[in-house]
Structure formats: structure tokens, C-alpha cells
Amino acid sequence: MIEECAINMECKLIDTLETKSHDIFIGEIISTYCDDKILVGDKINLSKIKPLLYSMADRGYWSIGTRLFNAWDIGNKLIKN
User: Is residue 2 situated within a structural domain?
Assistant: First the structure.
């Protein structure tokens, strides 16, 4: 595991899909390890880490901002109306 990373996931390779430009790896997450400093109870607190995401669509790196709202709340409100 990478000691400097707050979250590490151990994966098992299931399949490799070969394309003209790159390979896509399909994996199964076997276990997840987290630094105790980022946990609140048994849940990861994303405000305590600064995750870095790579987007193939624009070949850019992105960070996650603030939490906006609960998932499905907006959709449930629309369905009720």
C-alpha cells in the first residue's frame, strides 16, 4: 500500500479489454484501507482529504468541491410534484 495515500484499495484483476489506443482493466475491490484521520466513525469524511480525479474526456485533473445535497432528494421532490 502507498503510505502517503489516505485511502488504498486492494483489487483483483478480472479482465483486460484491449482497445486501439489503450487497455481497460476490470477489477474487483478486495479490501479498502483508510487512514484513521479521515474517518468519522466508520465512514470516510471527504472534507478531510483532497481527492484527485482524472477525466479521459478532457484529459484533465479535477478535485472534489463541497458537498451540495443528498443523493436522490431532488429527484424525489420532482416525482412528488
Answer: no
